[in-house]
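Please produce the structure of this protein holding 2-acetamido-2-deoxy-beta-D-glucopyranose.
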Amino acid sequence: MHKTSALGRVLELLVVAALAATADDAEAESARCAEVAFIQSARSLFHNLELAEQKARFQSFMTMLSTASTSSLKELKWQVLRTFPAVEVQANPACSNIGGRFPTLVSRNQSLLDAYATYACGDAADYFVTDPARSLSAELAPLEGGCINLHNRWSTIRATFASNESHGEYLHRDCPESCLQEEFWHQLPTQVVDHDLLVLPSIPGPPGMGYQHSLIDFLPQAWTVLDLLWNSSTKLVVHSSLPSHLLASLGFPTERILEVPPLTDEQPAMLLCAKKGRTMHLWRAGGGSRALPSHPYQDSRVDGDLWHRLIDIQVGPEISDAIAQYNGFVEEPFAPRLVVFLQRCTDRRTLENEQAALEAISRALVKSNRPEELLSMCAGREDFLEQVQKVRRARLIVGAHGGAMANMVLARPDTGVIELVGDAAAQKGLEGLWPPYKSNFYGGLGAAFPFYRVVLYEADPHGKLWIRLDDLQTAVTEFLDRL
Ligand SMILES: *[C@@H]1O[C@H](CO)[C@@H](O)[C@H](O)[C@H]1NC(C)=O
Ligand SMILES: *[C@@H]1O[C@H](CO)[C@@H](O)[C@H](O)[C@H]1NC(C)=O
Ligand SMILES: *[C@@H]1O[C@H](CO)[C@@H](O)[C@H](O)[C@H]1NC(C)=O
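Below is the modeled complex.
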């Protein structure tokens, strides 16, 4: 990379960090600290970097990538850190994917249930290759002086490959010859880091969706290695100050974190290398003796093989407890649990009858004579620790699909979830990836919850969105009746 362009990148990072700062004083203060850390880590990256070394590393990576299929490359040696048992899945009689890869829909309207089953076992039958009914493991492999390409989820690059001159492996989707011809491979900015590193290939979410993807694609995976890293000299690689912020809430030392430039729309991919003599530890979700299935390169089912997410709900309660302990949460053991309603609280995709939904939940609570208290919250307006405190008291979480629902990762293991999801018509015209009925259950992540249901919201002829209130009340009652 040219010196001036490197400086340009640092400035760009500052703009991003400045934009992230908010009006709130405490937040502004922590944003400033994050900003300083950010600048420092950006500087340390650009320190001592020789153009010649970057070029050489990039060339060597490309050579290994192009020989990967014919291969004299040796495989990496994976070590199991922790295993996760298969989740017991209650398959739906109408469609076996429901309950496993897709959540159960609650509706009194049989034609809606039929349409959903037709989707989950018809059109979308092979969307996900993930399967919560498989046992998984978190695994690590060392790679001496190697490189890995990282890309955000919306980048055209869909393959992740890690190698040095003798060893190498795909960590996400293989790259056939046609993929090697793609232009993006010729313009990967290269960062060579003079540290031992640990890379979670799952980290880069889509730009601008930092919070939910840090909770779903980063924190649970990172949790499996934190003990190992805590007192070591190896740094955990992150792409923005947000994951660092989450790790700080666990007391994880900032010296163990290396922030590399975020993957943005303008800069969707990079090559990250460990200097010769340094080790890059790689993380993956493994499937024991049988390899986990993956989708082929450039498959349009972008999120269909996100195996790493399937451990989230199993480690979530441990992370939540660790946050509570580190931050000295005072939790009254006999305080009533909550039914937490996560409101949209933005002008985007407003649900017209959100208030009436709150009343429907309240009616269901009163009718079933339960002690739980109803709490409505605007997650986006609260500090992370405040959100964790409330989610930890939740007995049931209700909310529309969106960033705030990612908080479910930090709920207690006995918590129920009711997610409001849109049918195809309600999601028409939205930017990004919006398969019908899109939910956080997504491929089986939610299957580890004892109760996870979705309820539809629908668009009227004017495009306004309405929650199906009677279905919501049915779902809430169904949950309460089980208690
Ligand atoms: C079921 O829902 C659809 C879509 O909202 C509606 O058109 C239809 O009339 C409903 N059927 C019944 C039996 O209520
Ligand atoms: C590549 O990494 C492997 C695994 O750590 C190591 O055994 C090997 O010596 C490395 N090869 C080179 C050329 O550095
Ligand atoms: C790290 O070292 C400190 C001090 O020796 C020790 O108290 C702590 O338990 C260690 N943490 C981990 C996770 O090993």
